[in-house]
Amino acid sequence: MDLANLVPVPVLLPLLAAGVTLILARHPAWQRIVSGTTLAIVAVLALILTIGADAQGPIVLWVGAWPDGLGIVLVADRLSSLMVLVSSIVTAIVVIFPSRRDIADGADGAPVSVFHPTFLVLTAGVANAFLAGDLFNMFVSFEMLLFSSYVLIMLGATKERVRAGSTYVVVSVVSSTLFLLALSIVYGATGTVSFAQLPERLAALDPDLQLLIQLLLLVVFGIKAAVFPLQAWLPDSYPTAPASVTAVFAGLLTKVGVFAIVRVQTLLFPDSPLTDLLLVVAILTMVLGILGALAQGEIKRLLSFTLVSHIGYMLMGIALGTQAGLSGAIFYIVHHILVQTTLFIVVGLIERVGGSTSLSRLGGLASIPLLAALYLLPALNLGGIPPLSGFLGKVTLFDAALETPTPLAIAAVVAGVVTSLLTLIAVIRVWQRAFWQDRGEDDERVHSLRVLPRIWVVAASALVGITVALTALAGPLTSFADRAAVDIHRGAYQQAVEEAIP
Amino acid sequence: MTPTLILAIAGAVLIAAGVYLLLERSLMRILAGVMLAGNGVNLLFLVSAGPAGLAPIVGEPEDQIADPLPQAMVLTAIVISLATSAFLLAMSYRSFQLEGHDEVADDVEDAIVRRRAQADLSSEAYSEQVPEARPDTESGGRSDEPGTAREGRAR
After folding, report:
1. What is the pLDDT of residue B154?
2. Domain that holds residue B87
3. What region does A437 belong to: left with phi over 0, alpha with psi -120 to 50, or beta?
4. Predicted pLDDT at A11
5. Which residue in A106, A233, A481, B92 could disulfide with A171, CB within 3.0 to 4.6 Å?
6. Are A423 and A307 in contact (CB under 8 A)?
7. In this structure, are residues A164 and A145 in contact, taking their beta carbons and an 8 Å threshold?
8. Which stretches does DSSP call E strand in A57-174?
9. Are A90 and A378 in contact, with CB atoms under 8 Å apart?
């Protein structure tokens, strides 16, 4: 069978399964089995695609095989297939988590049966965003994942969630409108929206118009990726959602934005890296994000701020515009998707065991060694303690930055080191307060893992295991990221798309 | 390509009015703003489609037909904005149901952090534990503090 026919499956299969889970609305256990299996199958297919794309270059499918390059094209090059792989691994594990109590948040009659269908549409949207071969298809997949995320972030529609969700929805709608505006300008100026044709036609445009289009797209994707100064919506809206939802949003949705920035910077505008501007933005994102985290007294909000701050690292790699920088950014994206999701899932466990996520109320959790280990490993990983993957990712990025020793690049390295130390302070503060401080005398609760379904602990341990295994996999992954970066810089993408025209 | 000036101006006016409404706190006004701005952008798509022409059907002379692609895109955008409007309507109704108005309140946690900063206290993560026994919610159990949301809005 031709490998190209596998490309649309990560999009189609979850959509199909969404329909099946809707039919099974009255059987929550079956819903969970269907979505778990579907996402596991997608993960296996994504692995095949990744290996295929690594062996034979970008895999291209012109959907419907219309003549002369009409119609929609899906492309799985090394970068996008890797992203699909990581995202499907994460979603396949996280989909096990949601329980009725977590989703409904105490609201009676909350429609918990919509969780699985919506979650599957979300994963289809994420996969489509990675595989899309043109800007408009990317816009459509953004809408797919955004609409599911609107529903997921407001599940149960309690007061707090509606308030937080309102901010999220309005900001996302504004960014979609801007995206549409950018699309109309791109089409009006070049007459195409295809990633393969755009670079050539964009380069022929007036430089000012090129810059306008580039900045407009960067703003649109910057809102999605929560890059300073467009990040204010994120710590406000993520923490109130159910733990499993926050975990996937934190891990995946911002990275879709970062991925889109990579496409804009490398594919559409390879000759205009805007290094200075993006480096300044990256430094501000890192430093201001982590300073925000230090001021928080609630774990989920604290983690949301570290999420914003660490987007700065990826942006730094992209900003450099070099192969080494890009490869470092790709490695960091993979690391960060896994670590951030794991941390939010573990915080979900902490919330169930300790009854709260507020630092002034938690304490004594260290009496459960397994939970302590599950928190400490990814937390140290995020802070960048060797030999974990966070350390390796940061070193790769700093290495890349020092290859081009401009004052700004060195400033970015300094900011990166400072941010990494401050991250460590923030997560260790949680460690100290939630796990080691004495509980109030009136608190008679005995902490125990028994309040958790066993499958939660298993799944969380699996995620933590993967983040630790990244250290061992760092060698192959780095060389894969290198090859992906080389691929992008040599224009293999356009060539493959044109060769595949039926 | 000769774009129509009137369409461009109309689109710009719609977007400007939409942006003005989006800056409001009331969800219904935001909804109106989203719809206006969305329609404005749709008009700009017609501008980018170039001069008007015959209906793009096979058999018509190829140099006289209008560009069909922007129309397909606008159709998709219209469908999406219909869904957005429906969702925003439901959301503002739910907000009205819960709170008696549809204005988006300030974040409680934010207000706490800000108040501590103004009172020159160290942040909550560093202060001593205050034993409390309040029912817990997703916000860490502090969303039930009276007046914080309203107070935040007044600033």
Report:
1. 39
2. 5-53+67-99
3. beta
4. 92
5. A233
6. no
7. no
8. 59-62, 73-76
9. no
In 3-state terms, what secondary structure has residue B75? helix
Nearest to A140 among B22, B48, B76 (CB): B76
| Predicted-assembly ipTM surpassing the 0.90 threshold | no
* CB-based contact A408:A276 (threshold 8 Å): yes
Measured distance CA(A113)–CA(A28) in Å, rounded: 7
For helices A299-320 and A275-294, the axis angle rounded to 10 degrees is 160
Query: Omega before A387 cis (within 30°)?
Result: yes
User: What CA–CA distances, in Å, run from A180 to A184, A198, A462, B78?
Assistant: 6, 16, 40, 11
Residues of chain A with pLDDT under 50: none
Is residue B114, in this structure, part of any structural domain at all? no
**How close is the nearest chain B Cα to the Cα of A100, in Å?**
14
pLDDT, residue A157, reads 78
Q: Is residue B61 part of a domain?
A: no
Query: CATH no. for residue B31?
Result: 1.10.287.3510
Residue B137 forms part of a structural domain = no
pLDDT, tens digit (0-9, with 9 covering 90-100), for A12-45: 999 999 999 999 888 888 888 888 899 999 999 9
Write out the two tokens for A91: 């979603």
Specify the amino acid at residue A109. Answer: G
Q: According to the model, what pLDDT value does residue A297 have?
A: 81
| Number of structural domains chain B divides into | 1
Exposed / middle / buried, residue B114 (Cβ in 10 Å: 0-12, 13-18, 19+): middle
Q: How far apart are the first and last CA of chain B?
A: 51
In A, which residues are within 8 Å of B30 by CB distance? 170
Write the DSSP symbol of residue B65: B
Q: Please indicate whether, in this complex, the C-beta atoms of B70 and A177 are within 8 angstroms of each other.
A: no
Instruction: Collect all residues of chain A within an 8 Å Cβ-Cβ radius of residue B3.
Output: 188
Counting every residue written for chain B, the total comes to 155
The amino acid that residue B118 corresponds to is Q
Within a domain: residue B20?
yes
C-beta neighbour count of B118 within 10 angstroms: 9
C-alpha angle A268-A128-A155 in degrees, rounded to nearest 5: 125
Contact with chain A for residue B8, Cβ under 8 A: no
